[in-house]
Each structure stands twice: as structure tokens, then as C-alpha cells.
Amino acid sequence: MDFKKCLVKKQISNQYVVIDLENNTEYDAIASGKLRYVRIDEKSSFNEAYGRRLKKDLQTIKISPKVGDRVMVNFSMDKVIIEEVTPRINDLVRPDVANVDQVLLVFSAIRPDFSFHLLDKFLVILNEQNLNITLVVSKIDLIEDNDLLKLKENLNYYKENLGMEIHYVNSKQKIGFDTLEDIFKDKITVLAGQTGVGKSTLLNALIPELNLKTQEISDALGRGKHTTRHSQLYDFNLGYICDTPGFSKIEISLTEKEDLKLYYKDFMDHAINCKFSSCNHVNEPSCEIKHQVEMGNIPKERYDNYLLFYEEIEKKKNKF
Prior knowledge:
By secondary structure, the chain is α/β, with parallel strands linked by helices. It has 3 domains: about 5-85, CATH 2.40.50.140; about 100-245, P-loop containing nucleotide triphosphate hydrolases (Rossmann fold), CATH 3.40.50; about 255-320, Probable gtpase engc, domain 3 (Ribonucleotide Reductase Protein R1, domain 1). The chain contains 7 helices and 13 strands. The longest helix is centred in the C-terminal third of the chain and has 20 residues, at about 300-320. It is globular.
């Protein structure tokens, strides 16, 4: 058999487009039936998406190729067949893509309004995968100058305390793109964000020849319609950008509420001064995080979001 290592560039249902990593040739491919169920142990990278739900002994789980996967492909038959999915560096579910190097988290300044609750939730989910995150604030041409200034002031906390790179862009006029275009080389970059924030408009501005379909925000509903129907990698500046189906509801996959604090880097910097080393920053006395909130050093809204996520995880565990 003639096997080659390829990258999954596109997936629509059970049909795939793969790229030969040696010569960059593209092929239409299908997945072998034996990929449907694979036996793995607890150290397998395929366990990551399942967290604590897997027992420590061998398990049989369903593994299907997804965009971003490195796969072993069989060229010895009339069809190009994906025979094996190699171990993943990371594995996202929404957006459904693997082996991501960085995420461009796209939020609109307005229509829909910027949501710090949603931002904090995205950061927890993406930090679980140890991903580099760059925030792109779109539609700056639609917001009043004073409101944009206030938004920038509030986001400055994330820049200074989380080290987050932030870009403010007007995709239609390509304002703010001078530094944005240089971050894609040798990386798989995912555009992620709520429906209607302008991901497809941003991608059209970066790669005009794509001419992706976009949909304006509904004034009545305050949200946009889904315009991306499948995940796909696009070549750009010696790297790949992945556009993904939009979504308006995301869920934190953590099953233990005590783990939530691990994904708040700014909290961990202060937590060493909590009275109890096991402090969850909720009801415990002499909590340094609550003290920092009272002092105005941690935004109250960010802490309130933490409490909401903590309660959300607790309710989910009690439900099951």
C-alpha cells in the first residue's frame, strides 16, 4: 500500500479534501470504515475531548477525521482513503477543528453588542486547550467614539493582565489590518466567535477571492443568521485560516467546579495570598480574589461571570 501523510483541509459530511504535506497536492478523500471505533488508553490525545468521562482503562470511542487533522492516506486503490488519524495536539468541538495553533476570537463592538460574559466564557473554553488567543473587535465603524473608547478602557485589563493581543478593525475598509495580516505564517488559525460578529466579512477582507456569503444582523432579533455551513482551511500568508459555522450558545466542558480557577490566569496571580490554598474564591473567608475585586483591581463583572460559570458547572454535575 502507498501511504502518505496529509492534512485535512475541508470536510462536508463524510467527504474530505486532504493536502499531501510533501507536495501540497489536494485530493478528494473518504474515511475508512475502521476509523469509526478505535480503542485507546488514558494517555491518548483523543482522550482530551472527553475529559473525566473516560475511565482509566482501555476505551472504545468513535474517532472521525476533522479539519486540521494529520492523517495517513491510502493511495493504492481507486479511491483516496483516510486510514488513520494521527494524535492531536488539541481537539476543539465548537468550532470543530483539530491541531489549532491560535484562535482569532472575533467580537463585534456593536450589533451584537460586545459581551464580556461571552468573552470570559470563551476564554475558559479556549484556555482548557492551552491555545494562543488574539481578540479581534470588529465593526468599529458602527459604534460611537465615546462608546468605543470606553470599550477599549475595559478591554485594557485583559491586555495588561492576561497578555491578550487585541486588534480593532473595520473589515469593510480594511482599517486595522496592517498588523493583523502578519500573524498567520506557519500556523493553523481559527476564527471563532458568536454568530453575526463579522467572521466571514473579516475573512473576505483578508482573502477577497473567497467571496464568502455574509448576512447582516437582524434588527428584530439582534443576531445574525448562520452563513458558514462547514469547516474549511484557507491558504493565507504561508499558513491556514479556518472559518467555522457560527453559533450563539457555547458551553464550558469542565465537570469539576474546582477546576474553573485554573483557567483564570489573573486570579491565579493573586490566589497565593488567599488564606486557604484550596480556595475556590466563592464562599471562603480571607479570599484575596474577593479583596482584589473590592479594591477595583479585578473587574467586578469578570468575577461575577466566574461565579456564574462556577454555579453552571455545579448544576451540570448535580444533574448527572
